[in-house]
Structure formats: C-alpha cells, structure tokens
C-alpha cells in the first residue's frame, strides 16, 4: 500500500468514526428543539424550547444533577487521594510482590462492575447499607481504584527521583516530597485520573440503580430511565433536552481543565547533570 493510499484509508476511517458520533449528536440537538419530535427526528422549521421548560424543575433536573455532582465528585476525590498514596511505593520502592500486585491490578481493570453486583447487593443488604449514599460512594471509589492506581503509577514514574532526593537532603520526609514535589509536578496526570473517574461515574447507571432505593438520592444517569414508560413509549423531545443538560457539566469540566491536560511531562532543565 502506498503512502497516499494509507493516508486516504486513515482519513476515511476517521470520517466514518466522526459521522458515527455526529449522527446521534445531531439527533439530540434537533429533537430537543422540535415541538413534536419523534425517533426519526425529521427537521422542520418549527423550533421551541418547550422540552427544556418541561424538564427544568427540581425533581427532573436540579436534584439529580446535584446528586451526580456529589457522587461523582466525592468518588473522584477519594480515588485520586488513595490512588496517589498507593502508587507512590509502587513507583519508588523495590517491593517483593510488586510485579504480581501490578498484574493483579491489570486483571481487575478488565473485570466489569456488573459481574460483582449480585454479591455487592447482598453485602449492602446484610450490613444495612442499602440506600446509603456514602457506602455507595466508597464502593464506586473502590471499583475505580485498580485503573486509577495503574495510571497514577505510570504518571509518577515520569517524575525524576533525583528531585525527591534533593528534598530529602533538605530534611523533607516521604509525605512532604510526595505532596510538595511529586504532586505538583504530575498535576496533569492527577487531572487525567480525576476526570477519568468523574466522567466514568457521571455516566454510571447500574450501580446507583441497584444500590440506592429512594428517588431523591438517584443521580441524573438513573433519571433518564424515567423518560421510558413501561409500555415502550418514549418522550423523545424531553429525553433529548435532558440529555443536553445532563452532558453539559462533563463538557464544562473538560474545558475548565483543558490547560492541565495539554501540559506535558517535560522535566527538562529540572535536573542538573
């Protein structure tokens, strides 16, 4: 295959992937502003914000979004802190079972949460934790830890050990060197882990649906289920309007931390030879 043909095949593949994402996105945009929208989302010249007015209330949008922010934010904070503390010895010290532990972490990253929901549900019910928001946040943080530790360890490996050794010479302990030297230098990596965990839990439907009993505790991902009736009818316009509002916080988060994500792990000049 010539170079031009390979480039054309790559651009064609990217165009197909782009259209695959743009199609559902355009359907959501059109359906949200069409008064009588349906599954076909046929474009008309009638535009209305009636669907947004119908869903913008405390029960449908505000309370579920607040619950999503609390659940996803708490899970991201706990996961980042614990993953940072767990990744530090894996990155800096020679441990006897380090390789086996890392392979175990890699294996658990491929284990779907749905595969363990039945024993988790039984455990929550047995210890009277069913419906407890803090208990569910701890479970979500625990399920996010394997991949977070794996990523955090790889980011931490990029920070030169000599910078920590200089801090140790000045009298800093391991905790001071972690929080004042390693942590700030790997801020883009911490942001990546936090966003990965936040976005993953923002769209988590199954765990809150199984572990939370009261509707006033459910996040926005579960609220989408209310637009589907038991007889197969769907309020497409309201569903599309809710989907746009539901997606907005995650997009704003990406934009807010984009400068950290664009930062490189270049430590050139930080160490003198």
From TrEMBL:
Superkingdom field: Bacteria
Keyword Cytoplasm: no
InterPro entries per record: BP-dep_ABC_trans_perm, MetI-like, MetI-like_sf
Domain ABC transmembrane type-1, chain residue ranges per copy: 65-257
Main location: membrane
Keywords: Cell membrane, Membrane, Sugar transport, Transmembrane, Transmembrane helix, Transport
A biological process term (GO) from this entry: transmembrane transport
Transmembrane segments: 9-30, 61-88, 100-121, 127-150, 185-203, 235-257
Pfam families for the chain: BPD_transp_1
GO cellular component: plasma membrane
Record's keyword annotation contains Chaperone: no
Membrane topology of the entry: Multi-pass membrane protein
Signal peptide as annotated in the record: none
Subcellular locations according to the entry: Cell membrane
Coiled-coil stretches noted in the UniProt entry, renumbered to this chain: none
PANTHER family: INNER MEMBRANE ABC TRANSPORTER PERMEASE PROTEIN YCJP, MALTOSE TRANSPORT SYSTEM PERMEASE-RELATED
UniProt similarity note: Belongs to the binding-protein-dependent transport system permease family.
Name of this protein: Multiple sugar transport system permease protein
Originating organism: Streptosporangium album
């Amino acid at each position: 295959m010539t170079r031009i043909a390979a480039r054309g095949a790559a651009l064609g593949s990217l165009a197909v992937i782009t259209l695959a994402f743009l199609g559902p996105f355009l359907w959501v945009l059109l359906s949200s502003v069409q008064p009588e929208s349906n599954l076909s989302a046929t474009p008309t010249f009638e535009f209305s914000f009636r669907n947004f007015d119908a869903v913008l209330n405390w029960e449908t949008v505000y309370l579920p979004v607040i619950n999503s922010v609390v659940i996803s934010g708490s899970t991201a904070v706990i996961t980042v802190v614990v993953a940072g503390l767990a990744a530090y010895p894996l990155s800096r010290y020679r441990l006897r079972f380090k390789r086996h532990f890392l392979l175990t972490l890699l294996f658990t990253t491929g284990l779907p949460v749905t595969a363990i929901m039945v024993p988790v549900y039984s455990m929550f019910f047995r210890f009277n934790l069913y419906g407890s928001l803090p208990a569910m946040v701890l479970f979500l943080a625990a399920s996010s830890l394997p991949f977070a530790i794996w990523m955090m360890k790889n980011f931490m490996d990029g920070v030169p050990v000599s910078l920590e050794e200089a801090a140790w010479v000045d009298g800093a302990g391991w905790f001071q060197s972690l929080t004042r030297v390693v942590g700030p230098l790997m801020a883009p990596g911490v942001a990546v882990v936090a966003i990965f965990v936040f976005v993953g839990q923002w769209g988590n439907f199954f765990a809150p649906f199984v572990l939370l009993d009261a509707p006033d505790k459910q996040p926005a991902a579960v609220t989408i289920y209310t637009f589907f009736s038991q007889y197969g009818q769907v309020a497409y316009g309201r569903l599309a309007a809710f989907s746009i509002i539901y997606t907005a916080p995650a997009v704003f988060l990406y934009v807010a931390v984009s400068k950290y994500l664009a930062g490189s792990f270049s430590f050139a000049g930080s160490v003198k030879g």
